[in-house]
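**User:**
My hope is that you can spare some time for a protein that puzzles me. This is the protein in question:
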Amino acid sequence: MTDRTEAKHRDVACNGIRLHITEQGEGPLVLLCHGWPELAFSWRHQLPALAAAGFRAVAPDMRGFGRSDAPADVQAYSLHHLVGDMVALVAALDADEAVIVGHDWGAPVAWHAALFRPDLFRAVVGMSVPHRPRGPAPPLAMLRAAGLDRFYWIYFQEPGVAEAEFERDVAETMRRILGTPGPAIKPETPDQILVLPEGGGFLDLMQPAETLPDWLSEEDLAVMVGEYRRTGFRGGLDYYRNIDRNWEFLAPWQGAVIRQPALFVAGTRDPVIAGFGRRALEQLPQNVPGLRHTLLIEGAGHWIQQERPAEVNAALVEFLRGLG
């Protein structure tokens, strides 16, 4: 049994790869799926809170991140692979079901886990990225047709390009992405949020972070920097390189909705909510009819579970206890 007061670390064989997990607590299983560029460490405030509330909280370093395996094949990072990892993790943990929680890229994993396996994932929580159902055409083609060929998803497509930018100075990369005080370029319209300047890179979108925000200590940042110096950024970037393949794979679920109990949490200053995710947020009750609550935390940005842990933890525990 896992000690409720102390987090444990171990490796688990899942879906043909090795996942490194952090687990804490006893009780009903809650999986915590992080995003990019993050780690299981991003859930450091949620693990003890959920354990104290009577749940077994498990946060993996997702496929391609941290101490988990990072397959070399770009195609090994589709939503089917990522959801498959979570299905296998539930089995490896000797559980019959789980609540799945996801932030950033972890949110699509969580949403689609609920969509694909409602028998296994009894409830779902998305953070920062609302569920977006399959659109009428491949997403990258739609972006290009809209004149958004400098949108960051497209910049990330060419293997090696973004890796070279981010790995040139990993400490500066992580300071800018996690600790930036705001956009370096004010977009003319919401659709221009996260559109790269002509000839520029992703980091040109962010102001240098001379001092870190209150929620991110130098010690915590050093944990992230150390891991990314060791692993590089390729695994996480391969998630973006499967965006159009995911669209192809999702054809059987065209028009399907998520009916399990659901919670959505985001910050009002999150560029996803202000930008390309705003329509998905408006349509969330239709696409996720099991949605019980949408919590928008005033003044918070994208890294919501790290920025505002007290409010996020309270919302999570209330939602989980309400499942019965």
The radius of gyration is 18 Å.
